[in-house]
Amino acid sequence: MGLSYPIGFRQSKDGPNPPPGVIWKPIITEYLPTTNEILFADSTRLSSVDAIIYRTGYKPSYPFWNSAANGPPLFDYKANRLRNFYQHTFSQIFPRTLGIIGLPRVLTFRSFKYQAVALARLFAGREAKPLPPLQEQKEWERQRAALVERAGRKFHDIPWDNGGTMEWLRGLFEMSGLFVLEGWGRCPPVMGEEVRWPVENVKKYPDYEGGMDNSDGHNEEGEGVNVVEKDEGEWVVVETTMEGKHSLYFI
Predict the structure, then answer these.
(1) CA distances (Å), origin 172, targets 23, 234, 251
(2) What is the pTM of this model?
């Protein structure tokens, strides 16, 4: 009889202990097929492994990338971010043949469309606005790293409330431009009021046991929280003031 081990990473909403039946582990550093083992970054091992099923929540992995032939690794696991990429999307080494979609913590799926259209335009040579010079791209990456270190944020977290999300999406939108007269190509989705309002007012997820605790006005990290929920039929509308958090905290 076989056993399955759900393995995941601790999230900000999780309590001090994993849910029943789940083991928290760091990233996998090596697969050992001759002994049916997995080696983790903390040097621990999981033995008698028959199969591995990847699910959401794992660290970025780019097994297709040949560092010996193409240059340094795409992702820095120690810093938890891409290296040599501009605006979380565009490769500084191979700008017209390599791009990455889906890392920023913003409007999931919708933001992926902005990235995808901008990259498609660039690869096709039909971008409405060119990428800045390489030196400017590197300077953006350097300033971004310094900014998030001062703010205590993750490199690929883009805040909503200070206009960061809209500024980032606008840059992708302006690079993409319109589709051609014949109708070829896609146009990024519009960020109208009907899209922006739910981001700022609708609760996305329930509060998890051991995570957010509003009973004393603070969350698990000791930050001030003031949440007022209003039942609006299908939606739970939230009015919240959270020190150090922003509207996309709920995503």
Answers:
(1) 38, 32, 21
(2) 0.68
